[in-house]
Structures are given as C-alpha cells and as structure tokens.
C-alpha cells in the first residue's frame, strides 16, 4: 500500500529529504510524524462522531512542505483531499467548497477572508516544527487541540475505523484494536479529488481512488526505473494540477526528494536557473511549455542539470522542435511523451522519443498503453447510441475503428476515475462500463480525437470546445459563461489561436448591448472582472469587439469565420 511505503522510508531513511522548497526542507521522519499528528486529530474527531470518514478536505496553499503533510495526514485518517492552489481566485475556491461539500480547509498560509463561508472551518498557518509536530498558527500542537464543532460538521455517527498507519493514543491499552480494522483510505475509496474546468461554468471534481493511483504508480515506477532512495524529482506544476501527482507520488513511493519551484521562481529565470544548479534533479516532470521556456536560454543544457536521466512530459502536446532540442542538449537523458486526462489518473500512454522517432513522425505519437488499461479509437456517434440504449453500459467492449481512421479516444481500466463528485449528470455523460470475461471495465470518454498509425497512438486535438493551454485543461464554455455575466456583454465566444501546430493563446470575441468606447480601457476592465472568478491561465490574451456574431445556416455561431478574422 502507498502509505505504508512512505512510512517505510521514514523508518529506513528518516533524515532523507522528502520535500524541498527554497530553504524549507521536510525529512521523511518529519513527514511521518507531522502527518500522524494531523491524522490523529482528524481520527479523534471521527471517533466522537463530529465528522464522517470519507468527507473531502480542502488543502489550500502553493508549494509549502506542509501541503504534503496535509495530503498524507488526511488520507491516513480516511479523508480524501482536494488540493487548491493559492493562486486560485477566491470566488472559484468558494465554488469548489460549495459543490464538493467540504467543511474543513487546511492551509500553511493565512486563508483570505473573502474565501471563507458561513460555518466553514478554517485551520490555517500550519507549520511543521523541528520535532515533526504539526502546529497551528498560535503554536499549539494540532493533535492536542479540541476539534471545534459546528452544526455543519456533526454527522450523527462515528467513523467506525481506526487507521492502522497511525498509532492511536489508547493502542497500548487495547492491543487487539489494530488487528481488526481497515487501514487508512481503502483500495476502492477516493484518495484525492482534483477540480477541472466545467463547461457549465461550475468546476468538476474528478475522484481518483487509491486503486487508480496505485495502478498508475505500478506502471510508471517500473517503466521509468527511478533508483530507490536516490532520485530528485522536479515539481513544477501546482498541486491542484494532476501532473503534480506524477512527481509527488513517484518521489514519495520511491524514497526520492521532491524539488518544488514556485510561481515566483518560474517568473524569474535567473533565480530559477540558480535553483536548478543546486538541485541535483534527476527526473524532470513538467508540461512541454515549461521546457520550451527554459530552452530559450542557451545555458539550459546538461551542464546545468548533469544528473537528469529522464524528461517526463504530459498535459499538452510535446512538439517536434522541443523534443529535438532536448535530445541535442541532454544526450544522456531520455525524453518521454505521455498522454492522459485527469479522469484516467495523470497518464495512460508513453513513448520514448528518439532520433529515429523524430525522423519518422511529425507530429509525435504518444506511444503505447499501460499494461492493465485500454485505449480504443471509437466512432463517437455509434458509441453514444450504444451507451444510451444500454443505460450507461455496453454488452461488450466497444468496437474500435481500423488503423488510420480518426475517432474518439476511450480509456478503460483500473486507472479510470469513479466519476465527478456530486455531479451525476456529468458523470453519466463521460463514464460508462462493460463486462468482459467476468470483469467490469470502467471507461471514460475523453472527447479527444485520436488515431492509430503504424501501431502507434496519435493525439489529434479536441472533439469539443475543451482545450489544453500550457498544460491546463480549459473549458472554453466556462470562460464564455463568465464573460456573459458582465453587464455590458451581450454574447461572447472564446477560441484557441494556434501557431506552429499548437495552441498559443486564447482570444475572446465579444458583442455588446451598446457601443464600446475606449477599447483599451474596456479590455483592462474585462480582464480585472474575469480575475475575480477565473485563474490567470484562463484569461484570454486578446479581445475582439464585433457588431454581431457570424452565424452558420443552422443558427449557430460560425466559429470558423471568427478564426478567419483573428490574426
């Protein structure tokens, strides 16, 4: 089990650094002690019937080591966690809290007052001390504090479980207690929930079970061969972005060190490269866009990062040019191109990009599928008809299209999410199942276009209005819906603008209920309004004001016509 592996590293190498962010360092011993402290506090509250096991907990922050403590502590006590980055606008955080039903926010930072809801319990300013105790902002050891009770928290029943990965206070008096109860989050229980953009304007909470996470780790660790207890993994992505699951849990499960760089370092290339120079990074995990930015500096070579063994890319398209430059500058490292949506636990396919692959393919393939999963290219209309007729299930495995024909990419296997939290309507649209040889296969409709050529899988963009930009999955409809809420705007369409075969930025096309005055001032005002509801990566770079939207013959907005006039 994952948590047992992490605990084992605390016993085997207690002083090894589990996480480093700037000058902050967290050893495996302190990670275990501090997460046990949090788990004990949560467990005791559950025993008193104040909280229900399995209720999600929001963990709010950026790259602090206490984020890891909160993740592991929640799971040890039987609670899935929802990572929320502190760069997320307060309005979006409130939405996540509301739709998830979360009642508790844990944070190493001070939580902004405008984010706090009525009867929401906030425990912020958390710090891991030198002894490994998790302390509140007032300096108290968390596990020794009383659990505040409000009407919202009381669930009317006890949790009924004791996590055996922590040591209950009364274990010495009741030695039989630990032998008869389950441990932490169980295999088929939800381990974490990551919120992604939703087409209706409401974020969707993707629920990933422990089984799915361990399926992912059981594939990537043997495939990419990190040396146990001897690797440093780059953490570039925020913990609220599922790419970070790869570096975080590959590192912790293998006794590695997670080296986090924060948004301020990323914005300052000189500071960023100074950090790289002293990092000893051996496994680079990032979006391709981040690597492309680094490659703009000629010093980004194996002289700067002499220990890098592998570049692991996921979240967006790895371009031919980016892969080619990396192979030239880091001749001893391998470049791995992975593919997978959040709903399939980070990634489900991979391919090592070699000089031979570069010579044969442009765009690049995304490789072969992990052994316990399937990726099928299916006819979208036929699949939809079959699922509707079967009430959300199929009698058999869906028929795959022949090689060379484009269709919708379907992912099935133990790595697939159990659905969106508290959102049965969207879950029914995206997930289905079938029986095969007595086994139930859970499948996810990605909405991605794909094709198999020469035995290799190719990603060919989106079938709907969802895009990936700089590794972030964005529902264009969510941006449009937020624009339409602004009083001066009558209608809005947001489209991705491509350059050199990949999305470069987003452009908003707007019609108003009255003539636009000063366009520059209007754009500034629109951006400021959007920042109250959306993260920065969802703010369109350009705005175009129109007298009216071009329409197709069937009365829909002619998006092709808009793109024709966007340059």
UniProtKB/TrEMBL annotation:
Judged by the first EC level, this protein's enzyme class is ligase
Could you list this entry's UniProt keywords, alphabetically sorted: ATP-binding, Cytoplasm, Ligase, Nucleotide-binding
> What residues does the AMP-dependent synthetase/ligase domain cover?
8-421
* Molecular function GO terms recorded: ATP binding; ligase activity
Q: What is its EC number?
A: 6.1.1.13
Give the superkingdom in one word.
Bacteria
Note whether Ligase occurs among the keywords.
Answer: yes
Q: Does the keyword Ligase apply?
A: yes
Give one Pfam family: AMP-binding
Q: Where is the AMP-binding enzyme C-terminal domain?
A: 478-556
Query: Which region is the signal sequence?
Result: none
**PROSITE patterns for this protein:** AMP_BINDING
Its biological purpose is as follows: Catalyzes the first step in the D-alanylation of lipoteichoic acid (LTA), the activation of D-alanine and its transfer onto the D-alanyl carrier protein (Dcp) DltC. In an ATP-dependent two-step reaction, forms a high energy D-alanyl-AMP intermediate, followed by transfer of the D-alanyl residue as a thiol ester to the phosphopantheinyl prosthetic group of the Dcp. D-alanylation of LTA plays an important role in modulating the properties of the cell wall in Gram-positive bacteria, influencing the net charge of the cell wall.
Q: Which family does it belong to?
A: Belongs to the ATP-dependent AMP-binding enzyme family. DltA subfamily.
Identification of the protein by name:
D-alanine--poly(Phosphoribitol) ligase subunit 1
Q: Which organism is it from?
A: Candidatus Desulfosporosinus infrequens
The gene designation is dltA
């Amino acid at each position: 089990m994952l948590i047992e592996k992490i605990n084992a590293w605390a016993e085997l190498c207690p002083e090894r650094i589990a996480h480093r962010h700037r000058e902050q360092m967290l050893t495996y011993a302190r990670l275990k002690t501090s997460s046990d402290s949090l788990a004990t506090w949560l467990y005791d509250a559950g025993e008193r019937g104040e909280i229900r096991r399995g209720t999600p907990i929001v963990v709010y922050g950026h790259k602090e080591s206490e984020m890891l403590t909160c993740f592991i502590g929640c799971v040890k006590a039987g609670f899935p966690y929802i990572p929320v980055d502190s760069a997320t606008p307060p309005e979006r955080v409130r939405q996540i809290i509301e739709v998830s039903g979360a009642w508790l926010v844990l944070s190493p930072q001070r939580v902004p007052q405008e984010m706090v809801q009525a009867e929401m319990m906030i425990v912020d300013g958390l710090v891991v001390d030198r002894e490994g105790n998790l302390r509140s902002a007032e300096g108290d050891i968390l596990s020794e504090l009383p659990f505040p009770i409000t009407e919202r928290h009381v669930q009317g029943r006890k949790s009924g479980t004791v996590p055996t990965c922590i040591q209950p206070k009364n274990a010495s008096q009741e030695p039989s207690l630990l032998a008869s109860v389950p441990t932490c989050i169980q295999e088929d229980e939800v381990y974490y929930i990551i919120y992604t953009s939703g087409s209706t304007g409401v974020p969707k909470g993707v629920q990933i079970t422990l089984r799915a996470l361990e399926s992912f780790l059981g594939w990537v660790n043997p495939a990419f061969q990190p040396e146990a207890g001897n690797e440093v993994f780059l953490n570039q992505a925020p913990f609220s972005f599922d790419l970070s699951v790869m570096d975080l849990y590959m590192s912790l499960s293998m006794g590695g060190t997670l080296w986090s760089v924060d948004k301020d370092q990323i914005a300052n290339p000189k500071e960023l490269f100074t950090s790289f120079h002293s990092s000893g990074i051996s496994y680079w995990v990032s979006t391709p866009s981040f690597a492309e930015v680094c490659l703009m500096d000629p010093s980004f070579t194996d002289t700067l990062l002499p220990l890098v063994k592998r570049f692991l890319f996921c979240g967006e398209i790895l371009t031919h040019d980016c892969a080619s430059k990396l192979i030239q500058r880091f001749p001893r490292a391998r470049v791995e191109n992975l593919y997978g949506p959040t709903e399939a636990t980070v990634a489900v396919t991979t391919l090592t990009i070699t000089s031979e692959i570069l010579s044969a393919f442009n765009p690049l393939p995304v490789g072969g599928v992990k052994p316990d999963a399937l990726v099928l290219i299916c006819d979208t209309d036929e699949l939809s008809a079959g699922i509707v007729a079967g009430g959300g299930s199929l009698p058999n495995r869906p028929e795959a299209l022949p090689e060379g024909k484009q269709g919708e990419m379907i992912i099935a296997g133990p790595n697939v999410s159990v659905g969106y939290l508290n959102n049965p309507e969207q879950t029914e649209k995206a997930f289905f199942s079938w029986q095969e040889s007595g086994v139930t296969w859970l499948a996810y409709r990605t909405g991605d276009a794909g094709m198999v050529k020469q035995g290799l899988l190719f990603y060919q963009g989106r079938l709907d209005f969802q895009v990936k930009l700089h590794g972030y999955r964005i529902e264009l409809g969510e941006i449009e819906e937020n624009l339409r809420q602004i009083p001066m705007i009558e209608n809005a369409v947001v489209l991705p603008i491509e350059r050199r075969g990949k999305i470069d930025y987003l452009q908003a096309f707007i019609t108003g209920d009255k003539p636009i005055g000063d366009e520059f001032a209007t754009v500034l005002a629109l951006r400021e309004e959007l920042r109250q509801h959306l993260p920065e990566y969802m703010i369109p770079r350009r705005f175009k004001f129109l007298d009216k939207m071009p329409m197709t013959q069937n009365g829909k907005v002619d998006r092709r016509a808009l793109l024709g006039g966007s340059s």
